[in-house]
């Protein structure tokens, strides 16, 4: 029959402590029992040998009294002839049969004896042959078998001690493991209360810096990141639905008007207006897909490329707009997605061209181990309070709406996402006139840079 394994960690550790304690304490108890028995036997036979030796010498000298005086703790003393008769004895051994019928051989006068005479009971004695002669007397000196060896009380006491210590070990393990796991139970209870609709709860952090406290800190950090991600998704969904609702409503209105009043509506104009609305919706959806891919892709990988050369290509493609002046202070190479960085440059330069009064300036250089690209226009600029707002999704300032009514409001948000996914940053910094966007990316050192295209326009 298979014994079910305890599910609780507390129970498992307690069972392990009980088994370990029983094994260790049983071994220690057995060693103690053996040591105690050995010492008792040795001490007993040493004392009986000493007394037997004294009276053996007295027998040879002929100075043995009729009643032999006992020498504590040896109180059983007998002198027995070759016929097995007790010739002399101590008071406690008088009138009894010989302590033993063992007679040591002539070549080995000492012999340890354990016997159980009927009158006296079990004894431990030392038998000494007085002389080598065949009719030599034998002196027996002994004591009744010590209680520690006779009645098993030593084993019972050791077994009781093993059980008590095992129980104490189990209790201590149960209490300590329970206290250790108490914070885990609190964390589990709090985690069960956290739902997708409410991620604001945090698990309790126990005092100290042990593994459980580190686990609680990590769990709270994970919950904070999860809450931020869910909040961003909710804001993103809300903003997207809000931005798409207007073109969808306009498209529906035009189509319904064309159906309800066919005589009053120009079909060609209605179709053109509907296509323009569809184009705006398609642009919004495309930008949303780009943001989704940036969240999940590894955009920082790729081959190194020349940032200045990329700027030249973008400026050439946008040559029909506001004039762009390019100034390169250092050739810098970066690593990443060339297409995505190009999109950042297109967004920044096109945005500057929309807001500039006469010119746009692009500067490429290196500063502190970073590639630095600045896009500056001479337009009205961006107020300090709006410098972070413009990077939020679907946020468009009043001037931006006026200059580009069909914009999606996602260009700068996508640009910052791309910059951060490449390990860089995109900010608006102070400028004497207009707005100054600054892109910073890590520089990659290359041994043989390729030739670049002209950089001025």
Automatic annotation (TrEMBL):
<dbReference type="Pfam" id="PF02518">
    <property type="entry name" value="HATPase_c"/>
</dbReference>
<keyword id="KW-0812">Transmembrane</keyword>
<dbReference type="GO" id="GO:0016301">
    <property type="term" value="F:kinase activity"/>
</dbReference>
<dbReference type="InterPro" id="IPR036890">
    <property type="entry name" value="HATPase_C_sf"/>
</dbReference>
<keyword id="KW-0902">Two-component regulatory system</keyword>
<feature type="domain" description="HAMP">
    <location>
        <begin position="183"/>
        <end position="231"/>
    </location>
</feature>
<keyword id="KW-0472">Membrane</keyword>
<feature type="domain" description="Histidine kinase">
    <location>
        <begin position="239"/>
        <end position="445"/>
    </location>
</feature>
<keyword id="KW-1133">Transmembrane helix</keyword>
<dbReference type="InterPro" id="IPR036097">
    <property type="entry name" value="HisK_dim/P_sf"/>
</dbReference>
<protein>
    <recommendedName>
        <fullName>histidine kinase</fullName>
        <ecNumber>2.7.13.3</ecNumber>
    </recommendedName>
</protein>
<keyword id="KW-0808">Transferase</keyword>
<dbReference type="InterPro" id="IPR003594">
    <property type="entry name" value="HATPase_dom"/>
</dbReference>
<dbReference type="Pfam" id="PF00512">
    <property type="entry name" value="HisKA"/>
</dbReference>
<dbReference type="InterPro" id="IPR004358">
    <property type="entry name" value="Sig_transdc_His_kin-like_C"/>
</dbReference>
<keyword id="KW-0418">Kinase</keyword>
<dbReference type="InterPro" id="IPR003661">
    <property type="entry name" value="HisK_dim/P_dom"/>
</dbReference>
<dbReference type="InterPro" id="IPR003660">
    <property type="entry name" value="HAMP_dom"/>
</dbReference>
<keyword id="KW-0597">Phosphoprotein</keyword>
<dbReference type="Pfam" id="PF00672">
    <property type="entry name" value="HAMP"/>
</dbReference>
<dbReference type="InterPro" id="IPR005467">
    <property type="entry name" value="His_kinase_dom"/>
</dbReference>
<dbReference type="InterPro" id="IPR050428">
    <property type="entry name" value="TCS_sensor_his_kinase"/>
</dbReference>
